Structures are given as structure tokens and as C-alpha cells.
Amino acid sequence: MVEINGRTRTCGLIGNPVEHTMSPVIHNNLATATGENLTYVPFHVENGRLGDAVKGAFGLNILGMNVTVPYKSDVIPFLSDIDLLAKRIGAVNTLVRTEDGYKGYNTDMPGLLRAMKHDGVEVEGETIILLGAGGVARAVAMLLADNNAEKVYILNRTTDKAQKIADEINEYMGKEIIVAKKLDDYKTLPADKKYLAIQATSVGMYPKVDEAVIEDDDFYKMLHTGYDLIFNPLETKFMHLTKNNGANAFHGYRMLLYQGVIAYELWTNKSVPDELAEEVYAKMLAAMNA
């Protein structure tokens, strides 16, 4: 453990709620392992006090902050600068101290990409099914387009939001990569290939663990891999159905790890090797099961 003294730097998490966060496990273990004189604590910020929190953190010389729900978009007006990726996504989860204030970054999406690569899941050249059309799905769709996915079918209960995402990203990319469809339209997708599916809704999250966006086995027979961004429970019904129909299945817990690792690297200018990341991952799993 880091010995707290007059030179200890502080990082933390602002959100509401924050009581069940795993971020202290990530960052305090990284600080100990890398010899960084840094400690990480959660800050519960009440609604309406976000601006006060950001200004106060800067005034208290806090090195960096993570931002979680419900403030990932609301925090942007209180920043001195914003990274291009975070600006495009419209969400910030990491604040890095500068001379003039905090610069906002989004490490969620790079964290997802790093997690997928660790799990042997490639994006480039893939035809991908993306379930959901909320803020997370929009960010994932941008990530997939940026990393040379061949085609992304966004399946949603209604097509309005999905079509808006498709139009925005296709215009930015200058070609049609994203296609919006209703959930049941998976039946119309080309049947001569296997798909990577990314589950980007909250369906199946604890405590409603017996639910999945699509429950038809025929859908899961189309997949070679299912990636659920939910991490509690560690095996969702989506994952269970994916495995039962012969495909590989992964959860979002490693994304949680790597978004934290990337934030830590931004704050400290230290690179975290994969071996250390795996040690921290094991401690996260132990803490979750405690």
C-alpha cells in the first residue's frame, strides 16, 4: 500500500452513486505496483453540484478524476479542453489536470478495444451486429467504424435512434458502414457468414439476470463471438445463449480494467504492462466475489 505523506497525489471518481465502484481496486493496486505516490478515492457528487466538484478538485490540486454515471456528458462544459475522441463520442470518463483546468478524455472505448484484443477478438474487416442504440452503442459504433469494421448492423427495438447513429457516422466516414435495423431484422442478414455481436444495452444486468435482448437460439447460431459490455453478472443470459450455441462469449469486466489502466497511464505517464494489468484483474475479481 502507498504510504500517505505530504507528497502523495490524489486521484478519484466523481459520480452518483459511487459506493460500489471497482476503480479504487484498479488504481491503488497500480500505484503500489508501479511505486507511484498516489492514492485514489471515490467522491459521491450530488445532483446539481458537478461544477462545484470539478472546480473544487482543481483547487485542491487533485491530479486526475474519473467520471461515471450520470455525469459523463454533463461534465464537458466544466472542462478547459477535450480530446477529439471524447468530443466525437460526446462523453468523458477521465479528467487529466493541465495548467488551465482539466482536459477530458474517453478511455472507455480504447479500453474496450484493448480488452477485445486481449481476448483475441478483432474488429478490422469484421461484419458486426451491435445490439442497442443508446449512448454506449453510439460510442461503440464509432469505435468500430474508426477501426475498419467492414459493416456494422445496429439492431434496436425501434430504428429511429439507430438510424440517427448510422447517418452521423456514415457521413463522417464518407461511406456506408453502419446499417440500422429492428431487432427482429437479424433474420434478414446474410446467412453465408458468422458474426461478432456486441451487446451494448443494460438488458441482463444485475438484478434482472434472466433477461436477454434476443432470446431466439437462431440468432445465436449466427455468431462466432458474443461480447457483452455488462460485467455484473460475470455470465449474462446473452453470454449463456451464445455459449450454448457454440460461439465464444466474453463480458465487459476486462473493459472496466483497461479503461482504468489507460486513465492511470494518462495521469502518471507510466506504461502498464500486460502482466501487471492481469494481476490487477485478478484482484478485481476477488473483490467482486468478496
Topology record:
Elements: E1 9-15, H1 23-34, E2 38-44, H2 50-59, E3 64-67, E4 81-82, H3 84-89, E5 94-97, E6 102-105, H4 108-118, E7 127-131, H5 135-146, E8 151-156, H6 160-173, E9 178-182, E10 195-199, H7 217-220, E11 223-228, H8 237-244, E12 248-250, H9 253-268, H10 274-289
Parallel strand pairs: 1-2, 1-3, 4-6, 7-8, 7-10, 8-9, 10-11, 11-12
Antiparallel strand pairs: 3-5, 5-6
Helix pairs in contact: 1-9, 1-10, 4-9, 5-6, 9-10
Describe the structure.
- It is a single chain.
- The chain has 290 residues and is an alpha/beta fold.
- It has a 6-stranded mixed sheet, sandwiched between helices. A 6-stranded parallel sheet has the order 9-8-7-10-11-12, with helices on both faces.
- Strand 11, helix 8 and strand 12 form a beta-alpha-beta unit.
- Helix 1 packs across helix 9 and helix 9 crosses helix 10.
- The chain starts with 8 loop residues before the first strand and ends with a helix.
- The mean pLDDT is 96.
Offer a quick outline of the entry.
The chain is built from 10 helices and 12 strands. The protein has 290 residues and is an alpha/beta fold. The longest helix is centred in the last third of the chain and has 16 residues, at 253-268.
* Tally of alpha and pi helices: 10
Q: Approximately how much beta-strand content do the residues carry? A: 15-25%
Summarize the main sheet.
6 strands, mixed
Assign an overall shape: globular
Q: What number is the mean pLDDT?
A: 96
Radius of gyration, in angstroms, nearest whole number? 19 Å
The ordered string of helix (H) and strand (E) elements is: EHEHEEHEEHEHEHEEHEHEHH
Measured between the Cα atoms of the first and last residue, the distance is 19 Å
What is the structural class? alpha/beta
The neighbouring-strand order within the major sheet is 2-1-3-5-6-4
Number of strands: 12
Q: What percent of residues adopt helix (DSSP H or I)?
A: 25-40%
Give the low-pLDDT segments: none
